[in-house]
TrEMBL record:
It comes from the Eukaryota. One of its GO terms (cellular component) is cell cortex. This is Uncharacterized protein. Transmembrane segments: none annotated. Signal peptide: none annotated. The lineage of its organism: Eukaryota, Metazoa, Chordata, Craniata, Vertebrata. It comes from Seriola lalandi dorsalis. One of its GO terms (biological process) is mitotic actomyosin contractile ring assembly actin filament organization. One of its GO terms (molecular function) is calmodulin binding.
Amino acid sequence: VFDIVPGPETGSFKVKTRFLGVEMEEFLLKYQDLLQLQYEGVAVMKMFDKAKINVNLLIFLLNKKFFKK
């Protein structure tokens, strides 16, 4: 399970992973880095060396959840 919460800075997010209720890892994700990956044409990024995340869908999710007016 991925929990995404706003980070300490504007445009950053904390991504926490849980497996069977146990917190595994935490990662600081910057929105600008995602946009750079999208610009470079990267479709999939690795997160925590275990999960592959679709960059476009992650940007869509963040826009829908955090930047919706």
